[in-house]
Amino acid sequence: MTDPRDRLIVALDLGDPREAEALVERIGDGATFYKIGYRLAYAGGLALVPKLAARGLKVFLDLKLHDIGNTVEEGVRALTDLGATFLTVHAYPQTMRAAVRGRGAAGPKILAVTVLTSYDAADAREAGYALPVPDLVAQRARQAMEAGIDGIVCSAIEAGSVRSVIGPERLIVTPGIRPAGAETGDQKRVMTPGQARAAGIDHVVVGRPITGAADPRAVAQRIVAEMA
């Protein structure tokens, strides 16, 4: 990776594509990589993917696909021409294998979401998972490797154990990143950008601390500098 800005993925968690485009303009050269998730995608934001890609920007399409295998495979195949760099699926073995088939040779890198960073141990128990969160993350990371997934989405807290499972070649992307002093919001397993980089994370996802700032470009630049 030659551009340190590529390590920061700005989450465009907004409800209007025009508002998202305006935010990208405000951030300008402060960022090169943007995440489009449910809220923006369902509001017409999928059309932003080729627009941003045409400008040389990278897009993380965070749709967390999970369904029967054929549906996931065809869904991924339908998204391959948009120009996204990353696409997420939930880390269930059948889902991951189907996503890899649907991506083919020219599609986006497929990232598997292990355990949401808004989950703690109590949330995992309530959802019916018998394993502790770190063990569940490690198990899903192993299954992702077997399925041929390109990278893992996990908490930065689990990054070290995930790296030991997936090796140096596959990617680790972490949401739940908060600059020092920022509100944690609904995230429960968080780190600062500097801590995440020291833990060997490839890309960090930051939303509200940037998108809600009076000067989002300056905040993005500070995060990139902290990771450097």
Question: Radius of gyration, rounded?
Answer: 17 Å
Spell out the CATH superfamily. Aldolase class I
Element pattern in H and E: EHEHHEHEHEHHEHEHEHH
Tally of alpha and pi helices:
11
Dominant shape: globular
Distance between the termini: 12 Å
Strand residue content: 15-25%
Active site: 62 (for ompdecase activity), 64 (proton donor), 64 (for ompdecase activity), 67 (for ompdecase activity)
GO molecular function: orotidine-5'-phosphate decarboxylase activity
Binding site for substrate: 13, 35, 62-71, 117, 178, 187, 207-208
Catalytic activity: orotidine 5'-phosphate + H(+) = UMP + CO2
Summarize the structure.
The chain is α/β, with parallel strands linked by helices and 228 residues long. The chain is built from eleven helices and eight strands.
Overview of the molecule:
There is one protein chain. The protein is α/β, with parallel strands linked by helices and 228 residues long. The chain has one domain: TIM Barrel. The chain is 42% helix and 16% strand. It has helices at 17-27, 38-42, 48-54, 69-79, 93-103, 121-126, 133-147, 159-166, 193-198, 208-211, 216-227; strands at 8-11, 33-36, 58-65, 86-90, 109-113, 151-153, 171-174, 203-206. An eight-stranded parallel beta barrel has the order 1-2-3-4-5-6-7-8, surrounded by six helices. Helix 4 (69-79) runs parallel beside helix 5, helix 5 runs parallel beside helix 7 and helix 7 runs parallel beside helix 8. It is globular, with a radius of gyration of 17 Å. It starts with 7 loop residues before the first strand and ends with a helix.
